[in-house]
Design goal:
The chain is mainly alpha-helical and 472 residues long. It contains 22 helices and two strands. A hairpin with a 3-residue loop joins strand 1 and strand 2. It is globular, with a radius of gyration of 23 Å. 47% of the residues are buried. A two-stranded antiparallel ribbon has the order 1-2. It is found in: Mitochondrion. This is Citrate synthase.
């Protein structure tokens, strides 16, 4: 039965004996705690920290709102609580205080849990984002096993996905399939039964883990249906990690480079503070107490927008056009000439600049470092063209003078590597991004519920009302 309706009377009448308790379904190893245990340890301290902030600084001024902020998409306004990551214009992204290079040093890799591969695992990043703590190898292995155990799609979801026309955009299919899993939401059922507000985070966490576990199978089934690639049945191997299984499902199970690239790609794309469209949308819809499936479905629809999730496709198209003009072994002068041709035509150079950063994107640096370690990418003409361009373009953009940040962002590299590995269906790239962004958006939804954050409801004004206000 669909669980969109909410019985408020049942909640108010619920007795303490009916309070919701999650039955643990995780695979557990001796002498390790589960992710739920780790989050449960964090919640009391986070609640106390929020309580103290309110008590000590509730009337403190965080800055003045100007008309340009209201008309400029609220850019830069400090009006949102987001625990998983902080983006600083000069220092880059930090996940609970840890930079990407820090994470690459301390977060467990595939090799650490007995698999082939040297890159940090998305499971490791998920644990860090949820708890603020670096997990042990055993904890990551346990979480990986839990995700595998929950990764199979229910038959109704498979039928829904199979009913979509092949011509429907993969992101439309992805968001619709995610929303359909609301059918089994533990949060929606617990809310209907009258769960205490202080316990909202528990069924939210269980839904979130269940959704993250199932995203690869949803994405793989869409890939097979639309493009005819992959195993067609979304078979899950309990001995593989989340991305090892995803790679098998989409037909790359024997490509070690692609598997490790996807691990890195999904880990570093998982969270990028809360103000971007997809993360903010999950938070906004979740603030109405929509369950994680509905909240993240809405986030995916935001991610599908051309100004958010399609940038690496635009970069790839531009880079391939440049390759046609300058050839496989372009000189720096060839690249400079193409850059100036782009700029003089009134277009921007895609993959350069950032809404917040005023430095090279550390995510680009991580992907660039990966390219330098893989022989097949060092021999790739398109990847090496992108690498050369990243060294030439900043000086051209500085000379041009109209770009606040002339350095490459993550999109300058991400799509080109997928293309080189053979995944050339551009319209699918945002689906991969969608698997990743859940690692940040859903943990924050858990924290929103743990901290009891209210429904988000900013004040809006008409232009007439603004004029009247500003004349005073």
């Amino acid at each position: 039965m669909m669980s969109l309706s909410i019985n408020r009377a049942a909640m108010r009448a619920a007795a303490p004996a009916r309070q919701y308790a999650i039955a643990s379904q995780s695979v557990r190893f001796a002498s390790t705690k589960t992710l739920k245990d780790a989050v449960a340890e964090v919640v009391p301290a986070k609640r106390e920290q929020l309580k103290k902030l309110k008590a000590d600084y509730n009337d403190a001024n965080l800055g003045q709102i100007k008309l340009e902020n209201l008309l400029g998409g609220m850019r830069g306004l400090k009006v949102m609580l987001w625990e998983g990551s902080v983006l600083d214009s000069e220092r880059g992204i930090a996940f609970h205080g840890k930079s990407i290079p820090d994470c690459e040093k301390v977060l467990p890799t595939a090799q650490d849990i007995g698999l082939s591969g040297k890159e940090m695992l998305p499971e490791s990043m998920l644990w860090l984002l949820l708890t603020g703590q670096v997990p042990s190898k055993e904890e990551v292995k346990q979480l990986s096993a839990e995700l595998a155990s929950k990764g199979k799609l229910p038959s109704y979801a498979e039928k829904i996905i199979d009913s979509f026309p092949k011509t429907m955009h993969p992101m439309t299919q992805f968001a619709s399939a995610v929303a359909s899993l609301n059918h089994d939401s533990k949060f929606a059922e617990a809310y209907k039964q009258g769960v205490r507000k202080t316990e909202y985070w528990q069924p939210t966490l269980e839904d979130s883990i269940d959704l993250i576990a199932k995203l690869p199978a949803i994405a793989a089934r869409i890939y097979h249906n639309v493009f005819g690639r992959g195993d067609g049945v979304q078979k899950i191997d309990s001995n593989l990690d989340l991305i090892g299984n995803y790679s098998q499902m989409i037909g790359y199970g024997d490509n070690e480079g692609m598997i490790d690239y996807l691990r890195l790609y999904i880990a570093i794309h998982g969270d990028h503070e809360g103000g971007n469209v997809s993360a903010h949308t999950a938070h906004l819809v979740g603030s109405a107490l929509s369950d994680p499936y509905l909240s993240y479905s809405a986030a995916l629809l935001g991610l599908a927008g051309p100004l958010h999730g399609l940038a690496n496709q635009e970069v790839l198209g531009w880079a391939l056009d440049m390759q046609k003009k300058v050839g496989d072994n372009a000189s720096e002068s060839d690249i400079k000439e193409f850059l100036w041709t782009t700029l003089k035509s009134g277009r921007v150079v895609p993959g350069y600049g950032h809404a917040v950063l005023r430095m090279p994107d550390p995510r680009f640096s991580a992907l660039s470092r990966f390219c330098d370690t893989r022989p097949e990418l060092k021999n790739s003409s398109i990847v090496q063209l992108v690498q050369k361009t990243s060294k030439v373009a900043p000086e051209v953009l500085k000379e041009h003078g109209k770009t606040k940040n002339p350095y490459p962002n993550v999109d300058a590299a991400s799509g080109c590597v997928l293309y080189e590995y053979g995944l050339k269906e551009w319209s699918y790239y945002t689906v991969i991004f969608g698997i990743s962004r859940a690692l940040g958006a859903l943990p924050q939804l858990v924290m929103d519920r743990a901290l009891g954050l209210p429904i988000e409801r900013p004040k809006s004004l008409s232009m007439d009302a603004l004029e009247e206000l500003l004349k005073k």
